[in-house]
Design brief:
This protein has 498 residues and is α/β, with parallel strands linked by helices. It has helices spanning 19-34, 54-64, 72-79, 94-109, 126-135, 157-168, 186-196, 227-233, 235-253, 262-274, 281-287, 410-413, 419-428, 438-457, 474-481, and strands at 9-14, 42-48, 82-86, 115-119, 145-150, 176-179, 210-218, 288-294, 317-323, 333-339, 346-353, 373-379, 383-391, 399-407, 465-467. Strands 14-13-12-11-7-10-9-8-15 form a nine-stranded mixed β-sheet, sandwiched between helices. The structure holds 6-O-phosphono-beta-D-glucopyranose.
């Protein structure tokens, strides 16, 4: 690794004792350290309310990276860059200590006064923290100052605007890195590459050739220990649709950017989200389905989970049909769905193309030619298949479906950077293309609020249910059947490991 790749930075992590830091952030930083992106010129200040010593903090860091290397010296060297400061984010005086430690570490590690402030904690503190960073002069003059925040970015449009306005008091929009970890996934990042570096997809990527698009983010896990939070914070619509699904959708529908940089890509995504058709309460009823999982033989139902209020109507499953009212996409339905406690973990996109106008291959055994489908597997398998029609080998003239494949092999999988590793590095490089712009967040809330309020005002309809571990409610299938479509599954397209 040439020395120029190495980043100089001081990272101040609010929420340093938390679950996200230990599960995701320390391992991600360690991987960057192993690859040489972080080496000598970095330091991390972890802060939280608890009274921890540097030594204890380093032990925690060591534990969270334990499985990532057998080289104890390397792990110790890495953790020696970590410092801990007990800190109450609401106490103005305490920011002085933070400032002093930051200046000391700037000098010790020659971080060129580059600073990243990572808020891995409850969003109600974001405003207070960023305000103090400014008024207590923790931002530097010479180096860069960047802010990384985690979802939820508000709980509706109004609170999102309020939050974004608070952040804007201290940071320019280009300095704010709103993490959506789906944008750090290998195959999500591949969407642009597939679309814009092949001659044959982009000309077909429109309503003349695409029949429908299906985005599925299904999860096998239930709400687990987060049940209390999930139940009060707004269910699957807020947990998965407003952020992850809308980010994937905007990448699929956006126009080609002039360049693949943060400014151009984000402007195209904003334009794309502006084209979403707004729904009336009646439209929501027609085009959106919510449901909740119920007890099955081996699995608890949502209402039995610890922390869920009695008779809760919080949805653990959402399916919807979205329409994009612009020249490229008018008339093409985009179907989305996500749910917890479904049969399997599967994150997948299907682009279903129109069928050929004339079928020259009628035969007694085969009446219809299946449409071509481009499938992008995001996880657990990573790769893509283009499911097309070919002649069956041999004497028959029948057509059969075969996939053109590109998949990551199990050996290659271990070399794929984890989402946080990739996104933190992109932030250190000042590349914000894979981070949500405030307008993206606000436009998605604008749509989501319509669905939420239609649902909240409808307290009389029964909430559909599905048995835990199943493929979801029948209503989710009906949504497509009404339009003459069905969700693709391994029966209709290639599935790896089947
Ligand atoms: C998070 C949601 O954003 O994404 C969780 O809050 C969900 O409820 C998780 O389980 C899914 O992420 P991944 O990377 O496992 O698909």
């Amino acid at each position: 690794m040439p020395a120029t790749q190495e980043k100089a930075v001081l990272i101040t992590l609010f929420g340093g004792t938390g679950d996200l830091a230990q599960r995701k952030l320390y391992p991600a930083l360690f991987r960057l350290f192993k690859k040489g992106y972080l080496r000598q010129h970095f330091a991390v200040i972890g802060t939280a309310r608890r009274e921890w010593s540097d030594a204890y903090y380093r032990e925690i860091v060591m534990q969270s990276i334990a499985s990532l290397s057998d080289d104890e010296t390397e792990k110790e060297e890495f953790s020696s860059h970590f410092y801990y400061l007990s800190h109450n984010v609401q106490n103005t005086q305490e920011y002085q200590q933070l400032k002093e430690l930051a200046s000391e570490l700037d000098k010790k590690y020659q971080t060129q006064q580059n600073r990243v402030f990572y808020l891995a904690m409850a969003p109600q503190f974001f405003g207070t923290i960023t305000e103090h960073l400014k008024t207590q002069h923790l931002l530097t003059e010479q180096g860069f100052n960047r802010l990384i925040i985690e979802k939820p970015f508000g709980h509706n449009l109004e609170s999102a605007i309020e939050l974004n306005d608070q952040l804007a008091q201290t940071f320019e929009e280009t300095q704010i890195y709103r993490i959506d970890h789906y944008l750090g996934k290998e195959m999500v990042q591949n969407i642009n590459a597939i679309r814009f570096s092949n001659i044959f997809f982009e000309p077909l990527w429109n309503n003349k050739f695409v029949d429908n698009v299906q985005i599925t983010l299904s999860e096998e896990v239930g709400v687990g220990t987060r049940a209390g939070y999930y139940d009060t914070s707004g269910g699957a619509l807020l947990d998965m649709v407003q952020n992850h699904i809308f980010q994937i959708l905007s990448l699929l529908i956006m126009e080609p950017p002039v360049q693949m940089d943060g400014n151009d890509v984000r402007q195209e995504k904003i334009k794309a989200l502006r084209s979403l058709r707004a729904y009336s309460p009646e439209d929501v009823k027609q085009n959106f389905v919510r449901a909740q999982y119920t007890q099955s033989e081996e699995l608890l139902g949502y209402l039995q989970e610890d922390g869920v209020v009695e008779h809760s109507r919080t949805e653990t499953y959402v399916a919807g049909k979205l329409m994009v009212d612009n020249f490229r996409w008018a008339g093409v339905p985009f179907y989305i769905r996500t749910g917890k406690r479904l049969a399997n973990k599967n994150t997948v996109i299907h682009i279903q193309f129109r069928s050929v106008d004339v079928n020259l291959f009628h035969s007694p055994t085969q009446v219809d030619i299946l449409p071509d489908v481009l499938t992008i597997h995001i996880q657990p398998s990573q790769g893509m298949s283009f499911n097309i029609n070919v002649k069956q080998m041999g004497l028959s003239n029948d057509i059969e479906r075969k996939p053109l494949l590109h998949y990551v092999s199990p050996e290659q999988e271990k070399d794929i950077p984890e989402a946080y590793e990739r996104l933190i590095l992109e932030c250190l490089n000042g590349n914000n293309a894979n981070f949500a712009h405030r307008q993206e967040v606000e436009l998605s809330w604008k749509f989501i609020d319509l669905v939420r309020s239609a649902w909240d005002n409808d307290t009389s309809s029964d909430l559909p249910t599905y048995p835990a571990g199943s493929h979801g409610p029948k209503e989710g299938d009906d949504l497509l059947a009404r339009d003459g479509f069905s969700w693709h599954s391994c029966d209709t397209i290639y599935c790896p490991n089947e």
